[in-house]
């Protein structure tokens, strides 16, 4: 696909006249900046710190995004949260959903690529890659073995000054990925002195701790702040949570236990014969009874959460250079390691009658081979996954203050990420087949419940899978913004700029065995050239206000992006703020957005881009929810087209004059998201929605012998392929989906001074969806998925109350999620609503050795609320009695923290 000249097929392009107007506007803004630069005064040398203002949702300095609401998490919110990472912090925001890419949930869109257990931000729940994450307003190097997305936890919480979220389409401002909105992680600046903190948290069978330090210094015309932080949380194993089980009958659910057990089951012609405890030999073959089955819970001792450790460092720097020039820089470095223990190795194998331990049940039809479903629990250790994610990035820029309020600037960002996932004790398909065909009793594999030669076991458990990936990101920008001219409502301001991005991702895999590894790798690249412009027009201001129009602002933005591999796109956005009276603002926006397909979606990193087969266990309603062995294919798709979206919003904000710092807000949103790139490789509940995929070829029951032969010849396999394929799933990325999301965001806050009793604050924020419809293919009808499992809930809210009195501070948060339908169960299950309470009390010492020290006690999930019961099968990607996308399996976490300022 290198340098393909394909044009994005979208209604989101400007007509020819608009493209000309866009270019003329950029040229006019640049000429205005240049003309005023001739008389630019020298910068002040009064010793003040150089201004470095970060605005989210607008390219114009000092102008908040017109038409869009900004959700802000302040430094106080960050310190009051019991979150152990920035990703956890963001999941407390009602507009953020934990779907697809997180350490606890990998079964939805995007989850298949998350093999190093990172996280991403999923605004509105419409996709893990439909939200753009920024640091200090600029892009950052993507993480993952395929460079797929941004993990917000690359920035430690100690380094955050605030987080700003614009839950509105913003591709006209920032380009690709800003479909659902933008999350901006803003680093701390202008800190004088040092700060250190330690925190330790514990729950049943789970522990976490953090330690960090910050050092800041200001001088005449400059500042620097540096932070370091270490975060660790232990693994959470399934045996420590009694709701994580395969057999859910005691709670009114199904029996989702596996038939791949120790001892296992002989399978002949669809009939099962349970192997008795202690095994079976030809001498006691009469103990095998037709229709019997052994069931077991292979995942009960698997980790629900991996062990994770992260070491991070950040810095910010500013320096006034004089003559109107100011230098700024920021950067981060982070290394995260993980360890994830899966369930016991298991498989369904075909045993020839030449195997010395072969047993044919009495009464079974004659044959030369039979299948045995078994687990190697007690014989082979789990194939534990380990790996790391390392990222480094630095940005340096310079701003020039020009005449008449204009400022020009340039910046350059260079970032590098390395990720790797590794397993080295997987079942070796070829060695298993050879050991089963071995006729020597001393070395042949016995799958009928008897002991095995340790050397034989070692020989079949040397399957290797290592997936390394490296991404190098470069970004260069030049920009200018300032006032153009005055009109009665105020000063018309503009911004224009050029941006160049270069992505290089080296992906690959090593498979085979530890003795004979087979390595493959390939390099993927992309260049992006972009022009953008923005115009802020104050049509009505203080000077020309009139009855019914106290203020009226208009903002017009446009951006054109030219990709070296997937064509080009133009995206506009228009926003307005109308204040009919002081204290009331009606705002609205209309725009288009897009997301270019990931490099790894166009070219799979497995087997030099040729793809591979993966043996997986699927929950099958045709078998009463029991697990079925299936084969999924992952392959490249060079025909992928970018995703497109149309976004609309309309809202009202009110700050009543009679209220004391009271703010109320209500915003309606409408997102039409089309041509969505979807892969079902990691969706192990796919068969529960099989009817939706009729005629697509994504699900094939009992594939033909010719199809199986073709797949085997074309792709290598990970796992032991079944002799008889009863299920095939096409897990490759395709432009399959479209969705329609509508709803309302709301926010309310107030502060109530109470004299000697202190100061009280109350707040509420939430999201109420009115519609969420999804089509699995572009030609399929939209199907209502609102309030259904693994889709957005109808209603989420977070209530807050705060209290301050002298050195004391307390916070209580109530998190509510409404009941929803589990349509993956038969009959349909209504999952109960969930309410959890978080609380913190803190005391700040103001004298003696402990002066400027804050001691805080935090309890997340104060009442130790168990996750609501969900009748869903366990899988390696989450689930099993609870919904990992909506609930935290850890339970109540009690933590103590100490923060000291020097």
UniProtKB/TrEMBL annotation:
PROSITE patterns according to UniProt: PROKAR_LIPOPROTEIN, TONB_DEPENDENT_REC_3
Annotated TonB-dependent receptor-like beta-barrel domain residues: 357-862
Keywords: Cell outer membrane, Membrane, Receptor, Signal, TonB box, Transmembrane, Transmembrane beta strand, Transport
Keyword Transport applies: yes
Secretion signal, residue range per the UniProt entry: 1-32
InterPro entries referenced in this protein's UniProt entry, alphabetically: Beta-barrel_TonB, Beta-barrel_TonB_sf, Plug_dom, Plug_dom_sf, TonB-dep_rcpt-like
Family annotation (Gene3D superfamilies): TonB-dependent receptor, beta-barrel domain, TonB-dependent receptor, plug domain
Domain TonB-dependent receptor plug: from-to ranges: 68-182
Pfam families per record: Plug (PF07715), TonB_dep_Rec_b-barrel (PF00593)
A single Gene Ontology CC term: cell outer membrane
Major location (coarse): membrane
Localization annotation: Cell outer membrane
Bilayer topology: Multi-pass membrane protein
PANTHER family: PTHR47234, TONB-DEPENDENT RECEPTOR
Family per similarity comment: Belongs to the TonB-dependent receptor family.
Annotated protein name in UniProt: TonB-dependent receptor
Source taxonomy: Bacteria, Pseudomonadati, Pseudomonadota, Betaproteobacteria, Burkholderiales
